[in-house]
Amino acid sequence: MTQHADSAVDAVAIQAITQEERIRLSNEWHARPGLRQAPPMRCSHVMGLRNESTVDEAREEFARFCRKHDASAPAAGSRQHNVSVGSCQVKWEGHTEAVSHTVMVPGNGQPPFSETALDLLDREKRDALMSDFLVGVHIEVLPPQGQEDPHGHSLASSLLASQTLHGGLMSGGHAAVWSAFQPDADGFLRIVVIDLGIPEGRLSRLLQRILEIESYRMLAMMALPRARQAMADLGRLEPELNRVMIRLEQERSEADQEAALRAITGIAASVEQIVSTHAYRFAAARAYASIVERRLEEVGEEKIGGYQSYTNFLLRSLQPAMRTCDATERRANELAQRVARAANLLNTMVDMVQKKQNQALLQSMDERAYTQLRLQQAVEGFSIFAISYYAVGLLSYGFKAMKSVGLPVDATLLTGIASPLVFALVWVLVRSVRRRLSKRD
């Protein structure tokens, strides 16, 4: 009865867990709502690496910020949370290896970029955001400038202090996006978005995609320095492996093979360390790069005149970097395969040497066994004579005893007659015993 009750309780628990998972998975479709703010407006975005901290610790830190400003804290287990603090809308997101904060505020009378959305947060929060700073973006969404500057290129060039801008029409031609892709004094990238009649919801999605592009492309590019370092390490190990194989081809003594085996083992350990150390970074870079490429497709950029497009500029740097990472990973795997083949070849050579040594040892053992057999046969001959000698001696004592009691016997004659007979008998018995032992073996 109890067993059936426990089974029923387990079934209910499984159903409850399944229901909870189903709800959580269903909520994933709404897990990343964007901030909405009518233009003109300004936006600041900061992403920082979590380093040793966990998502839970980052969530709790943001919860303290929310409680400080009498705002609702994020729910347990959540990875994003939107909150209003004064005139600011703040969005917190916990990523796999980073945490991002996005701040939106309405446009005000201040000149663009003279005051950012981030400046409206308290100094303690700003310092905390800059402590693990990786990606920073300031965006100004401005109204159109009239027929003299229909797409806002001249305005953007003036605000960004650059004659080389990259951009185009996005979101079905409802917005023009411009950037010089040059960080300011604080390390933030500045982007100008010209409102060409874009609805508020569509603007929210466009800004979210732009911020994701900037965030994920930097996360993807984090693999490039590692790829270059790995390339340098592989460039050092490949000639070392070649030298070991050349030396092994020229000198095949046992000492050379042992030295080559130690060298190849060291190279194999180094290659494996390179592969295992950078495998996650390269896999993450591919995932981030695919997100960037997908978001660039989603913004639907249309080229404006002779200006280089926003999308082409980003892909021109991102794609070669990802190809470098892929090439590094392939090169490391190919070197690992070469090392494995070299180790197998060396093991084969060592096996051959060991087989030759074993063959020589067996031959030496055969010679020793043959010598022992000859010695044994010689000893057998002496043993026949010895046994015969003692047996004849015993018979002689018997014959002499018979003569002493008065029997008419000649002890010397009988001893002489018995000697060959005893020798023959002993010889037959020894041969019979040896034959039986040979059959048993």
Distance between the termini: 67 Å
β-strand number: 8
β-strand percent reads 5-15%
Average predicted local confidence, pLDDT: 84
The total domain count is 4
* Assembly context of the chains: single chain
Work out the helix count: 9
Strand-and-helix sequence, N→C? HEHEEEHEHEEEHHHHH
Uncertain regions: pLDDT < 50 for 5+ in a row?
1-5, 7-15
Q: Please identify the structural class as seen in this structure.
A: alpha+beta
Secondary structure blueprint with pairings:
Layout: H1 2-27, E1 41-49, H2 55-68, E2 80-85, E3 88-94, E4 98-106, H3 123-131, E5 133-142, H4 153-160, E6 166-170, E7 175-179, E8 189-195, H5 200-221, H6 223-250, H7 254-298, H8 310-404, H9 411-440
Parallel strand pairs: 5-8
Antiparallel strand pairs: 1-4, 1-5, 2-3, 3-4, 6-7, 7-8
Helix pairs in contact: 5-7, 6-7, 6-8, 7-8, 8-9
What would your notes on this structure say?
The structure is a single chain. The protein is rod-shaped. The protein contains nine helices and eight strands. The protein has helices at residues 2-27, 55-68, 123-131, 153-160, 200-221, 223-250, 254-298, 310-404, 411-440; strands at residues 41-49, 80-85, 88-94, 98-106, 133-142, 166-170, 175-179, 189-195. Strands 2-3-4-1-5-8-7-6 form an eight-stranded mixed β-sheet, sandwiched between helices. Helix 8 (310-404) runs antiparallel to helix 9. The chain has 441 residues and is α+β, with helices and mostly antiparallel strands. The protein folds into four domains: 1-28; 31-215, no CATH class; 223-360, Methane Monooxygenase Hydroxylase, Chain G, domain 1; 371-440, no CATH class.
